[in-house]
Amino acid sequence: MATRGFSGRKPPTDNGERIPPGQYLEQGFPVLSAGPTPRVRTEDWSFTLKHGPRPIKKWNWSEFSALPLTRMTRDIHCVTAWTKFDTAWQGVLVDDILADAGITPPTGYTLALSFDGYSTNVPAKDLLGGKSMVALLYEGKPITSDHGGPARLLVPHLYFWKSAKWVNGLQFTERDEPGFWELRGYHIYGDPWREQRYTDDP
Amino acid sequence: MSEVPQSPWQAASITRIEKRTPRVTSFFFSLSRPFVYQAGQHVDVRLTAPDGYQARRSYSIASAPGKGEAMEGATIELAIEKLDDGEVSPFFHEVAAIGDEVELRGPLGGHFIWSASDGGPILLVGGGSGVVPLMAMARQREASGSKAPMTLVFSARVWDEVIFRDELVDLDGRQDGFNLVLTLTREPARRPMHHSRRIDARMMIEAVERLPKAPALAFVCGSNAFVSAAAQALIDAGVPADLIRTERYGV
Hints:
The structure holds 2 protein chains of 2 kinds.
Chain A: H1 13-16, E1 24-25, E2 46-51, E3 54-60, H2 61-65, E4 70-77, E5 82-93, H3 94-101, E6 109-114, E7 119-123, E8 133-138, E9 141-142, E10 152-154, E11 167-173
Parallel strand pairs in A: 1-5, 2-11
Antiparallel strand pairs in A: 2-3, 4-5, 5-8, 6-7, 6-11, 8-9, 8-10
Chain B: E1 10-19, E2 24-37, E3 42-48, E4 54-60, E5 71-81, H1 89-94, E6 101-108, E7 122-127, H2 131-144, E8 150-156, H3 165-173, E9 178-184, H4 201-210, E10 217-222, H5 224-236, E11 244-248
Parallel strand pairs in B: 7-8, 7-10, 8-9, 10-11
Antiparallel strand pairs in B: 1-2, 1-6, 2-5, 3-4, 3-6
Helix pairs in contact in B: 4-5
């Protein structure tokens, strides 16, 4: 059913295939978060890989930023309906984090954890095979605190709330455990191409 | 026969339109499937072009659910600011008329919410149209008969852009524990105890001091720049970061 008098701004067809259903193209880089922006200094920063409550390995900033850096340029999709093309990141692939810790995924599920208490669940398979990184640079510069710096998770093929800002750890869990927004009405998986925005979406 | 899942979208028709300020107009929607909601929640609105193209945006609910904690509402109010380069808000401001139907989905959001059982004191800090979900909280306090102390610090550019101004001044005048602290950033203050500057830590300290005890929760809503500054001012005023909930309009 068409809305009377609405024509909209349909994106050009060459872009249409890059924009998931219900999204619009955004040129800026909007900021969203559930609380105040934490100012995390790199000297206070650390990243801990855990299996359940048990730490497997912990890195400080200089140790972590000495891991191999990989470039990823990807389109990103926020559940609030904006899509931004070609965002350019550099960081440490989750594959390389696991390799440095000398482990293979002990379970099929993870929770990404953040300095501000935020968490979000991502299946292990969505983090591996070059699909995801802990990003340290955006467009060649340190990520600003508004955008999750000094380090944020980047899982660009899922809605962007999965790309946890101010990330400080990754925890393997036995089950798929909902994180902060997943407990507050948002979809457990969050695939933008299937429009998995809210809990009751298929 | 397999069961056909009910679409989460529902038709909602406009029953009333009320201009709030030069740039903000309230649209009242009659819901075809009334839902239970809480103050602070939002809905997604979806418009469809003749060729099938759809645009969706999120809007905070300005109305209060009613007497209970989370009451079913048959009509909700959305206060929509006109964004000159927008795609959806110009439709509402330039085209939409009483009787028009749009699609609507909700209620959404489970974090930026307040109900009377959450108690207080509550500090609300809003910038511009960021006042909308905070208005729902102020209205819910009144509608539910809550005595939770609540202070709204509301920053607007000028007196004529103060959304819900008469209603807020009236709520403030009842002296039943709701306080309005208005600050105008481009005009002199119009009322005693109000301000004429951007929100800062001193203003937050004064707002906290007007509450009978430290706030149990603070809700901050507005543009990203506003929320960043106001949340930092609250932290500088001694409000713990984990008591501060924010909603950013993304721009």
